């Protein structure tokens, strides 16, 4: 199996791993929200931090949708640059989010992980959409 053909399943698996971890954080965000708050917090503070985390997780899911549409439509499935970038950042995000989940890091750290590991590959995916559908270039 060549390096290019093994990049496609690796990319798919890292995207799915990242997606599963984000969904897990969605289901069990209570402990992470409490880690963002002082020891004596009000319900209003809790609701505010919970809403921020829900928005961040929802944005992440939207960016997943963009990336998966590009991947499954074939726009970027065999693009080596996007495949390598996506595999690297989603693998890094999976590791970072596991620490976020188990070590109960503060919620602000999630925004950094979101920016580097979700916005960046989704932005490149959008550029590939523009190149393929707008400029009529080949998907490779």
Describe this structure in words.
The mean pLDDT is 92. It is elongated and about 55 Å long. The two termini are 19 Å apart. It is mostly helical. α1 (3-27) runs antiparallel to α3 (43-73), α1 packs parallel to α4 and α3 packs parallel to α5. The protein is built from 5 helices and no strands.
Protein topology:
Elements: H1 3-27, H2 30-35, H3 43-73, H4 80-102, H5 107-134
Helix pairs in contact: 1-3, 1-4, 3-5, 4-5
Care to give the gist of this entry?
With 140 residues, this protein is mainly α.
Elements, N to C (H/E) = HHHHH
Low-confidence stretches: none
Rg to the nearest angstrom? 17 Å
Number of helices: 5
Distance separating the two termini: 19 Å
Number-wise, the strands total 0
Mean pLDDT comes to 92
Shape: elongated
Residue fraction in strands: under 5%
Helix content: over 70%
What class, by secondary structure content?
mainly alpha
Note the main sheet: none
Features:
mainly alpha; 5 helices; 140 residues; 81% helix
